[in-house]
Every structure is written in C-alpha cells, then in structure tokens.
Specification:
alpha/beta, Rossmann fold, 37% helix, globular, binds pyridoxal-5'-phosphate
Amino acid sequence: MQIETAHIPIQEVLLNFDADVRLFIKREDMIHPFVSGNKFRKLKYNLAEANKQNQRTLLTFGGAFSNHIAAVAAAGKIHKFQTIGIIRGEELISKVETNPTLQFAVDNGMQLKFITRENYRKKTSKEFLGQLTAEFGRFYTIPEGGTNSLAVKGCAEIITETEKDFDTICCAVGTGGTIAGISKGAYAHQKVIGFPALKGDFLQEEIKPYVSTDNWTLINAYHFGGYGKVTDELIQFINTFKNQTEIPLDPIYTGKMLYGIIDLIKKGHFAKQNRILAIHTGGLQGIEGMNRKLQRKGQKTIL
Ligand SMILES: *Cc1c(COP(=O)(O)O)cnc(C)c1O
C-alpha cells in the first residue's frame, strides 16, 4: 500500500507516579485515519496477494463498529478494489445512517450485506462462501478481523530495528493476528504481552498455529466485561490519559491495554529498569460510534 510506515513516532508516556520502569508508545494509529495501525499491517500482503491473483473484489466480515470493515473499505477505495462487507446483524440494515462505521464504509464504496447472527456463525463454511460467490461473483476473501498468515507477516513488520531497544512489547488482542506477528518480529531478548479485549480462554489456541516461539503471554484481566464493553472507569481513564499525554485511545482495544499496562506497573509486575513499548494499534474511528451508544444510555463519553 502506498501508505507511509517509515516514520512512525515512538513517544514516552510520562507516568504521574513513582515507577522504576519507562513506558513508551508506538503511534501506529498515525499510519492513516482509517486504515490505521494493525489493520494496515494486516492488509498489506493480502492486497498484494489479491493483485497477484488478479482479483478486483475484496470480501470480508465484521460487526457494527468494526475497525477492520472501515479499513478494508478505505484501502479498497485507495487501491481501486471493489469491496463487500458481510455484516453481523440483520437489524443493522436500517441503521446505516446512524452508525458512523457503516456509513463510512458505504461512503468509501463498500457494498454491505446484512446477515443474521446465526448465518454469521456459518460464514467460513464452504456452503456459505459458495452462496456468496453465486451472489457476488469472484472475490478475494479476507477473514473477520483480517487475521491470516499474510496478516501475521505484515504485523511482524511492526517491530523494526528502532524497537530493539525495548524489553517488553505490549499490544491489544482481538483475533490474535497482531500479537502473532509481533511475536515473530520480536528480538530474542524481548517479551511480548497481549491484552485481550474480549473474554474467553480460546485465544491462546487460536494464536498458537501462527507462532513458533513462546516469547508471548496473554493477560486476561483487562477485558472490562467483554468485547465492546466499557465501564465509566475505563472511559475516565481514556479521558485522563488524553488530557495528560495528548494521545487518544480507543475504548475497544488500546484503552483497555494501556489501563492494563499502567495497572501492572503500579503493581510491580515488571522488572526494574524495564523499557516497555506499547503498540498503539489505532481504532480511533470507533470512538464516535461508542460515544453515540454511551450518550443514549446517559453515560460518560470519550472526550
Ligand atoms: C483489530 C484491532 C486489534 C486486534 O488485532 P488482532 O490482530 O485481531 O488481535 C487491536 N487494536 C485495534 C485498534 C484493532 O482495531
């Protein structure tokens, strides 16, 4: 993709309490406002492969506020692919105008097909993909969340020589492609810690096929109730963090990860003098949709 990744800044996060570690953040969110962070990394080699196969249409899957759907729509527009998004939840068909992610996808030329949650669970079956081919013709399939081996290859590039200096690399985890790539890209002296944004212990097993070393661990304590779930405390944390550092965090992934890292620092989890690098994987497009939801419930919103 002709999107620039050579000069992604690493910033130090100054902690407002006594700590004998240092925390830094790699601003992958700055790669692109919509094809941001890890979604760019995951698409890079998939788009190259689609080109190689002479495919002109990308088809993928996602939920109502999916960063991946927004990224595929934007990347498709930039690179002149047709894009099709298979969206979980039939009821959303009438809510496109009030859903900033779906509206963005449509504005970037993505064709949306809404299916029931039941059908969505069958989305990787041969039969279902056959029906989609009958409906849309030939397409290049990108899995939900964008994770496949080409995505892992792209995410390995998050770690370059500039990152050699750090002892611990932290990232948020959804489907696990990003942490698998970082685990591959990491230097021998580095440890990788993943913060799942969802509940459940199945992730460990999903990540394993993509990794060859055991330099990584998952810390499951910071999902805040599950995927897409937030609390007032998390929102307050995101707002305070932005006030103090001028770094925006998203509520689904990077907010939970940073909350977790800072909590672990306070609890003395890291060795003294540890240099910790958090990867800001982006996701900022999701803030608007989350705020609309919070507003409807009369809850605190993200500033
Ligand atoms: C999709 C996403 C993740 C999760 O990446 P996986 O490779 O699915 O684990 C993390 N952070 C942000 C901002 C994302 O959009």
